[in-house]
Amino acid sequence: MTTAAAPFGSPAATLAGPAGGASAIAASARQVTKAYGSGETRVTALDQVDVDIARGRFTAIMGPSGSGKSTLMHCLAGLDSVTSGQITIGGTEITGLKDKQLTKLRRDKIGFIFQAFNLLPTLNALENITLPMDIAGRRPDQAWLDQVVETVGLADRLKHRPTQLSGGQQQRVAVARALAAKPEIIFGDEPTGNLDSRSGAEVLTFLRRSVDELGQTIVMVTHDPVAAGYADRVLFLADGRIVDEMANPTSDAVLERMLRFSAAETPAAGPAGSLTPGADSRRTS
Ligand SMILES: Nc1ncnc2c1ncn2[C@@H]1O[C@H](COP(=O)(O)OP(=O)(O)OP(=O)(O)O)[C@@H](O)[C@H]1O
């Protein structure tokens, strides 16, 4: 059961960019419960989740289908409201913020990478990368932008439109777009889900580099043990609870852990930390 901070200690002192000098925790959930519907159709998607996301680290969220991964990510990112509990991003409690404040916080502090690349087809790669800042009326930090473009290996593709780029290159543009505004934290929802394994590996390598070389904090939902193997830490969800975690994961170890969800495990009726087979055993109340 994961209720404590990530077991990594403080981020490296050499981290540059967004991590500089701030707290070791980029985001946290405290006793977060999220229920959809009411009465007989009520579904508890998250059940009293406590978690700290370490700054300057790469965290993967895994678990069986319906275990609450997307819900946790959406709640952490302020894209969905919680039923009870608190979410904090960069020291600001976002639960309870008004819509306008939340929109501003998301714009200023959070980057997103989705499974569909969500690039504008009429803009070239560079214009797509700077679009969120253009909309916000912020001038890009040119030195940072150059570093980001270099890190994701796009320097010779900046004038290309999305249709002139491979899927992997398009997702690298989306990664650069998320990094460009120096967000407090980047959330990725199956960022390699639409890519072949080679392009996926490229994107994961760049996500890894953005953590190691730029000090970025990344949280990624994935079904893929290979993708999770790029992370520093994997959180395993089942039945709306964090039931396990793994530091310095290998894809084999993650796969082995995931297979145990499919195998006959003791169904959870009891306290947090019990292992369950996932969606089929979801409680309704
Ligand atoms: N908008 C919604 N309305 C009602 N129930 C929902 C809604 N969104 C999610 N749920 C339910 O909440 C539970 C958790 O869903 P969630 O999408 O977070 O799981 P997941 O682990 O991301 O699943 P998957 O791996 O299949 O994407 C599921 O039982 C799902 O049916």
Count of structural domains: 1
Q: Could you tell me how far the N terminus lies from the C terminus, measured between alpha carbons in angstroms?
A: 23 Å
Inertia-based shape:
globular
Overall CATH class = Alpha Beta
* CATH T-level topology: Rossmann fold
Rounded mean pLDDT score: 84
- Assign the structural class, choosing from mainly alpha, mainly beta, alpha/beta, alpha+beta, or little secondary structure: alpha/beta
The share of residues in helices is 25-40%
Strand content: 15-25%
Radius of gyration, Cα only, in angstroms?
19 Å
Hetero ligands: adenosine-5'-triphosphate
Total number of beta strands:
10
Uncertain regions spanning at least 5 consecutive residues: 1-21, 269-285
Question: Could you describe the 3D structure shown?
Answer:
- The structure is a single chain.
- With 285 residues, the chain is an alpha/beta fold.
- The protein has one domain: 3-Layer(aba) Sandwich (Rossmann fold), CATH 3.40.50.300.
- It is 31% helix and 22% strand.
- It contains 8 helices and 10 strands.
- A 6-stranded mixed sheet has the order 6-7-8-3-9-10, sandwiched between helices. A 4-stranded antiparallel sheet has the order 2-1-4-5, with helices on one face.
- It binds adenosine-5'-triphosphate.
